[in-house]
Amino acid sequence: MRLCVFDFDSTLMDGETIDFFAEELGIGPRVAAITERAMSGELDFFESLQERVGLLKGLEYKKVEEISHSLPYMPGAIETIAELKKMGMTVVCFSGGFRTATSYAKDILGYDADFSNSLHHKDGRLTGLVGGDMMFNWSKGDMLVRLQDILGVSEEETMVVGDGANDLSMFAHAGTRVAFCAREVLKKEANIIIENKDMSELLGRLR
Q1: Domain ranges in the chain?
Q2: Which of 7, 19, 163, 167 is catalytic?
Q3: Is 9 a catalytic residue?
Q4: How do residues 144-187 score in pLDDT, each as one tens digit?
Q5: Whole-number mean pLDDT of the chain?
Q6: From the candidates 9, 19, 163, 167, which is the catalytic residue?
Q7: 3-state DSSP helix/strand/coil percent for the chain, to nearest 5?
């Protein structure tokens, strides 16, 4: 394999970034319920993302950065990415979450590039608007195909790792499909299933 693409929230990071933001505003359960339905494939991802970000309107941007820079990374993530790179893989992160988290984590976790979304802010506070690379159910698959074309990598040489319904589109274009502590909708399409919150288990499954 030459290319590995990881999801971020609940895959490389233990939790959902947007849920941590919501907790700061005292609306954690409300936003988490929408997140869970979206990740289970019950809601359109674009619509659910817009709705959840809209609920964050008014949150201080400095608090967004503070939370994004103190997220709990998944056990084994750093070691696993380092080992995959030693094996010659390009390692990339695709996230329906936010660049404040994925770009900051890039050098800590060791992946080569991140593609995610940006929270619009004005006068130091979130406006409730969002835009970026990973806004739709099909975004990850679309970006994966473009990356494969650029790098000259085939589906058989590609591994993807995720946990939710918005990872389905990239599962469609990868030979190795890893469902990590995932929803049932994703497990059905996986050929490797990991149930424990320890990313290093992936290495054992590749040997």
Answers
A1: 3-206
A2: 7
A3: yes
A4: 999 999 999 999 999 999 999 999 999 999 999 999 999 999 99
A5: 97
A6: 9
A7: 45, 25, 30
